[in-house]
Amino acid sequence: MIMDFKETLRDEKSQDFKDLSDKVSRDLDGVYIVLYPDDFVRAVVRRFRPGSVIPEVDLEFKANSTTPSNTDIVRALYTAVTGSGNLGDLVLDKTSITSNTASVNTLPPLRIVTEFLLTDGFTPGLSSSISAESIQLNDKINNWHLLIVFSLDPTENQAQFQMFPFSLRILNKDFSDGLSNRGSTEFKELSTQVTTSIKKLFGNEKGFSEVYVMKLTKGSVIASTEVTFSPASTSPSRVSQILLNGIPSLETEGLKIDPTSINPPVPSTPRPFPGFAVAIIVLCGLAILIIPILIIVALKTGLFKKLAQAFSLRSPDYYDF
């Protein structure tokens, strides 16, 4: 720790020792309890050595738990202080972190599995790792070329961006089958024209990140486009308004955009429940209640028997004239 060493720090009973050890323990607890919530118990400072101040600390884990390796211990603390160089308000020399034989200088390379989406479409040549297409694309990836930033997914934590999708109808372009293939020359040329033109509209907007054409479909040509911003830097209405105001500029770039395709869809107003339907429901409810009562009354009064006799067919001889 970058601070002056006091002789009182050699004495475990001194107030200086107690104050600093409590602070170191508390700050270390905050680092490791997050990473090992089920197993970590506490950090205990055994002593302080000069140079500037070097704390010797024991990290305690629950019995029979899976404890992290010395390398994991070093990496966890190194990661926590990387950037500010501080542990809480304690200034550390992060290169001095050690745990037994493990140190910052002996840390193995950290392997991070990352998934991302490329703006180029898939072609059959990419199926072979030794093809010219695969080698060329591998070189591009290694140089971080043509990455869609918002789709980066390192260790399942997606990059945070606001995405504003639009289905822009381009009226002065005719659709061809080649536009449906992201790997075709036609797709690349038109998508580049769209993204380059739209970027000019947002170039001075705070938080603006990128424009992507995800696909091109019929009618005349509909460009499924996403405009991306950093979090909480703008609103859908603001992005739509900039696009609307930029229609003349886009036309000078060779893109005649249908203004109605820029406005985000307005949710339809729910239709009110018709009054006659309410009346029908009420009448049906009353009928359900009344019909059983009528049946019970009819049974008790013999109404059904009288009705049966009244409507029965009998021979003329039955009647006495």
Automatic annotation (TrEMBL):
GO annotation, cellular component aspect: plasma membrane
Protein name: SEA domain-containing protein
Transmembrane spans: 273-299
Top-rank lineage group of the source organism: Eukaryota
Domain SEA span(s) in chain numbering: 1-104, 160-269
Location relative to the cell: Cell membrane
Entry keyword annotation includes Iron: no
Coiled-coil annotated residue ranges, if any: none
Pfam family, one: SEA
Provenance organism: Acipenser ruthenus
Alphabetized UniProt keyword annotations: Cell membrane, Disulfide bond, EGF-like domain, Glycoprotein, Membrane, Repeat, Signal, Transmembrane, Transmembrane helix
